Amino acid sequence: ERDPGHRIPAVIVSAVAHFETKLDAVRRGCDAYFEKPFEWEAVIRKLRTLLDPADCDGSRILLVEDDAVQAAFVSNVLADAGYIVRVCGDTACIDETIASFPPDLILLDVHLPSGSGLDVARYLRQRDVAVPIVFLTATHDPKMELDPINAGGQAVLREPIPRAVLLVLAAGAIAGPLVVLLAGTHFDRRLRRWTITRHVAAA
């Protein structure tokens, strides 16, 4: 029996391609908008996500985190959602772990006792490891907001991490290219880097 408080997802399939129409659908609570002609596979993937958000197909997540308490929290939240999680507390084990446990997503602490998470990300990108990387950090310095993105990451999560935000970001990063929009920033396509265009206050 369906929970009376459960919200039924709304999906629109239309031949109308006007951007304003799509925005209006978002304002009215639409969960997805598919413009004709569309790919059925994309529609099915979206419907599966909407009807069962916990269905993650057993995706693998590598968590590189030296803090035992934080590692336990993140891994438990993800495991409860159906993800397969492997925790690596030292940068020295990353190569071996990736080889034996090919991840769909890497959650990487920025500050590790054995080395910088930013350097680890650059190393992985140099080795052509194309797995999405989401950084974890307790730093709230706005001047350092873009360092993880420029190191090859898709997003940055500030600790303490809300459970809902962790799950949404993990699902989004695994599903496909993740676009991170930060207020007061600009992506320089020539330099292929995010740059600060004005001061951003810490959230």
Computed structural class: alpha/beta
Instruction: Tell me the number of strands.
Output: 11
Main β sheet profile: 5 strands, parallel
**Which strand-content bin applies to the residues?**
15-25%
Provide the residue-averaged pLDDT: 77
State the order of secondary-structure elements, H for helix, E for strand.
EHEHEHEHEEEHEHEHEE
Instruction: Indicate the percent of residues in helices.
Output: 25-40%
Radius of gyration from the alpha-carbon trace, in angstroms: 19 Å
Q: Largest sheet, order of strands side by side?
A: 4-3-5-8-9
List the total number of helices: 7
| Low-confidence runs | 1-5, 178-189, 191-203
> Separation of termini?
40 Å
Shape: elongated
Word description of this protein:
The chain is of the alpha/beta class. The chain is 33% helix and 22% strand. It has 7 helices and 11 strands. The chain has helices spanning 19-27, 40-51, 68-80, 94-100, 117-126, 147-150, 163-175, and strands at residues 11-14, 32-35, 60-64, 84-88, 105-109, 111-112, 115-116, 133-137, 155-158, 185-188, 193-196. The strands form 4 sheets. A 5-stranded parallel beta sheet has the order 4-3-5-8-9, sandwiched between helices. A hairpin with a 2-residue loop joins strand 6 (111-112) and strand 7 (115-116). It is elongated. It starts with 10 loop residues before the first strand and ends in a 7-residue tail after the last strand. The relative contact order is 0.11. Mean pLDDT is 77; it is low at 1-5, 178-189 and 191-203.
Fill in the keyword field for this structure.
alpha/beta; 203 residues; two-stranded parallel sheet; 22% strand
